[in-house]
Amino acid sequence: MVDHRSVDVRGIRLAYQVWGSPDAPPLVLVHALGENATDWEQVVPALARSRRVYALDLRGHGRSDWPGDYSLELMQADVLQFLDALGLGHVDLIGHSMGGIVAYLLAQDHPQRVRRLVLEDVPVPRPRESSAPTRPDGDLTFDWEMVLAVRRQIDQPDPRWLERLSQVTAETLVVAGGPLSHVPQDGIAELARRIPGGHMVTIPVGHLIHNAAPRAFTEVVAAFLLAEENAHPARQP
User: Fold this and answer.
1) Which pLDDT does position 234 carry in this prediction?
2) What is the tally of structural domains in the chain?
3) Strand 3-9 to strand 12-19: parallel, antiparallel, or no bridges (unpaired)?
4) What are phi and psi of 174, to 5 degrees?
5) Is position 133 within any domain?
6) Predicted pLDDT at 131
7) Domain harbouring 83, CATH code
8) Which residue has the higher pLDDT, 79 or 233?
9) DSSP bridge pairs for 117
10) DSSP secondary-structure letter at 5?
11) How far apart are CA 51 and CA 21, in angstroms?
12) Are strands 91-96 and 52-56 parallel, antiparallel or unpaired?
């Protein structure tokens, strides 16, 4: 059963949802641009069988605060403070698209905090042609100013992000969406190559893998987490 909660980190209220046994190893889910914790609902039941699952609303999204100050680095810092506030020393971490960038930034800067990393259809941090996004009509469940700020960073990423992928020490599974995805798949393959211990699998259903093929996604992820857990038994923080 889902449990809705919130925590204050550095003056920002972060909303999150929790599933699974409190005694199970922690797994943190980081959503894509414009999404929120509810985006994971199709895959959480399977993941929560063996994990204590935490799904965040990043700043500017969902029920979390919309402070008007946005960057991927701030989101990364929020996730780190979230882990500290909840006393989660080491976690498994799944990030989708933009959330995957936040996830690998955290794994670069604080490798001791991430035990296993799953990156779902995440672009390699290389410059790309910029295009002006169009604001959807009606009320939004995210701050449009956040979209503009983050898109600028994704279009022109900090060169250090690419260089520092080699500093990710977590065993990493990169899940690619195949030719139906708008994310260049050669870049996703490069991301997997640049991360030591990186492995790539393709589930050819497009960018929204965990929604389009929830069973395939959870089977691949669960097998990865279980294999690594057997090889390196988890110690609770």
Assistant:
1) 41
2) 1
3) antiparallel
4) -105, 120
5) no
6) 84
7) 3.40.50.1820
8) 79
9) 93, 172
10) E
11) 7
12) unpaired
